[in-house]
């Protein structure tokens, strides 16, 4: 069903974005992959091509609106359509608020919220005009449950969840654009690498000892959502490792 469609995946240089790009490409989707680490994108592109897939890669910093617009334009110039947007780029430098890591708050707001708005803004007119499309946003269990040292990160993921529901109300019925909020629990990726609050060292180590989800598990959920028949709008997918309590 999605064979031949075109998808943009942000933050595709590692983790969930990388696994999603490969999974969609194997399903016959033309994938446009963006992130700041272009060397990683180039490596992934080679792997996708080796699997017989079609790929476009380009540097993308989702905090820069112009880069988001240019990225979407390049994809439209190349393939003439954007059918799926996976707003995956994100970071999680957890910290206790009292430590006032203001730069990290700013980056989370800029990437996790504003990046999602900018990238969605870059494709929405096109999807609206052709009356079809699918926007997949990476929220989190942290978009449903707040935990200590996660106040800012959770705030960004609650924002993504709210934005996703707002998109559904505005565009699903009127413009046939489907929307999905993907809400993973703990997934083994590089996401915890940005944590600088030393008091969270133990928390990070404990997470590494758990039987977590793999990026592929989330890619499978994204494939399920985007490959569902047109009348099915998979609005939310919440996935925890079996061993994760909260
Ligand atoms: N891992 C988990 O446990 C978990 C759970 C729930 C939700 N999530 C969400 O899943 C998404 C993917 O995270 P992940 O776990 O796969 O972590 P990851 O491996 O660290 O991947 C994050 C991706 O975001 C990209 N990124 C960061 N800043 C960017 C920017 N300014 N512009 C463009 N791309 C940027 C990174 O690429 P560059 O550095 O190359 O730009 C990287 O490819 C995030 O939104 C995260 O919040 C993860």
UniProtKB/TrEMBL annotation:
Keyword Lipid metabolism: no
A Pfam family the protein falls into: adh_short
Family: Belongs to the short-chain dehydrogenases/reductases (SDR) family.
The organism of origin for this protein: Candidatus Nitrosomarinus catalinensis
Protein name: 3-ketoacyl-(Acyl-carrier-protein) reductase
InterPro entries named among the record's database cross-references: NAD(P)-bd_dom_sf, Sc_DH/Rdtase_CS, SDR_fam
Keywords in alphabetical order: Oxidoreductase
One example GO MF annotation: oxidoreductase activity, acting on the CH-OH group of donors, NAD or NADP as acceptor
């Amino acid at each position: 069903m999605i064979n031949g469609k075109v998808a943009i995946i942000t933050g595709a240089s590692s983790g969930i974005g990388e696994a999603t790009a490969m999974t969609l490409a194997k399903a016959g989707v033309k994938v446009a992959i963006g992130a700041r680490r272009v060397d990683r994108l180039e490596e992934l592109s080679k792997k996708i091509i080796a699997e017989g897939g079609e790929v476009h890669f380009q540097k993308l910093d989702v905090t820069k609106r112009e880069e988001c617009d240019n990225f979407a334009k390049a994809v439209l110039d190349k393939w003439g359509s954007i059918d799926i947007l996976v707003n995956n780029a994100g970071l999680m430098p957890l910290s206790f608020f009292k430590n006032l890591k203001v730069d990290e708050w700013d980056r989370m707001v800029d990437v996790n919220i504003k990046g999602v708005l900018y990238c969605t803004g870059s494709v929405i007119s096109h999807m609206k005009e052709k009356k079809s499309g699918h926007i997949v946003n990476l929220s989190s269990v942290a978009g449903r449950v707040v935990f200590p040292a996660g106040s800012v990160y959770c705030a960004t993921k609650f924002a993504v969840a709210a934005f996703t529901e707002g998109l559904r109300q505005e565009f699903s019925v009127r413009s046939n654009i489907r929307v999905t909020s993907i809400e993973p629990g703990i997934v083994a990726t590089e996401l915890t690498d940005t944590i600088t609050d030393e008091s969270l060292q133990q928390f990070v180590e404990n997470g590494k000892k758990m039987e977590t989800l793999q990026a592929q598990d989330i890619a499978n959920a994204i494939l399920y959502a985007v490959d569902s028949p047109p009348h099915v709008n998979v609005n939310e997918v919440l996935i925890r490792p079996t061993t994760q309590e909260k």
